[in-house]
Write a structure and sequence with these properties.
The chain is of the alpha/beta class. It has 2 domains: about 40 residues; about 150 residues, Rossmann fold (3-Layer(aba) Sandwich), CATH 3.40.50. The protein is about 35% helix and about 15% strand. The chain contains 6 helices and 7 strands. Helix 2 packs across helix 3. The longest helix has about 30 residues. The radius of gyration is 31 Å and the shape is globular. The chain starts with about 35 loop residues before the first helix and ends with a strand. About 30% of the residues are buried.
């Protein structure tokens, strides 16, 4: 039998009636790294799970509030016509996407001014480019903003296409900030507890791929006197 090498005996003083302690050596890949690398690893192990959790929470919240989906052009036209948009109006689109509603409001309906806000900077840049191509960049503005912190007090018409979870909070914001008589036109998901002045349904087969339905339901509201 080959000789098996043995480790040097641990230097422990045995006492009568007690077993001598066994020396153990524990190896860890973390401890084997240089001190600076170990520190970076420890920080990453602490910070990364919290960061991932916060990103997931923010992403989920964005999806619940305003998922991006193109509003078909016929629906855009119907929304603006339903709200009676004209030369005296300032139109704000909360969650403006590629900017088509704001552009149509100033180009096709003669609105005095339009503002689109979106949290997606790439979509805002795209909307600005489209407004420039349409020749209405001086009246159709787009900004990266949170719709809930956007001041809508100067609008006479507000357009909304958000999911139901956002609607109670937005309802309270609009009724507090908009002047009495301002109109709000909503796509698909009505405000709870606020009776609509008009409800219109129209076919929208273009929506089938993006949201799984082939119609659009529009709701028109007027801000009541305070």
């Amino acid at each position: 039998m080959d000789d098996v090498p043995t480790l040097p005996a641990a230097r422990h003083r045995a006492t009568p009636g007690r077993r001598a302690p066994i020396a153990r050596t524990t190896w860890s890949p973390l401890l084997a790294r240089p001190a600076r690398a170990r520190l970076r690893t420890i920080v990453a192990l602490i910070v990364l799970p919290a960061l991932v959790s916060s990103v997931r929470a923010a992403t989920a919240d964005d999806v619940r509030v305003a998922p991006y989906a193109d509003t078909p052009s016929p629906v855009v036209e119907a929304m603006l016509r339903m709200a009676g948009v004209g030369p005296a109006d300032t139109v704000i689109d909360l969650g403006s996407g590629d900017g088509r509603l704001v552009i149509a409001a100033v180009r096709d309906f003669g609105a005095r001014a339009g503002l689109g806000v979106d949290i997606n900077a790439a979509l805002v840049d795209h909307a600005k480019s489209r407004a420039a191509q349409a020749g209405v960049a001086d009246r159709a503005r787009f900004e990266v903003r949170d719709l809930f912190t956007t001041d809508v007090g100067g609008a006479t018409v507000v357009a909304v296409y958000l999911f139901p979870a956002a609607m109670p909070r937005l309802r309270d914001k609009l009724r507090a900030e908009l002047a009495p008589g301002a109109r709000v036109v909503v796509h698909d998901f009505p405000f709870p507890g606020w009776p609509a002045d008009r409800i219109v349904s129209l076919p929208a087969p273009q929506k089938a791929d993006s949201v799984g339905r082939s119609d659009a339901v529009l709701f028109l509201y007027t801000v009541p006197p305070r």
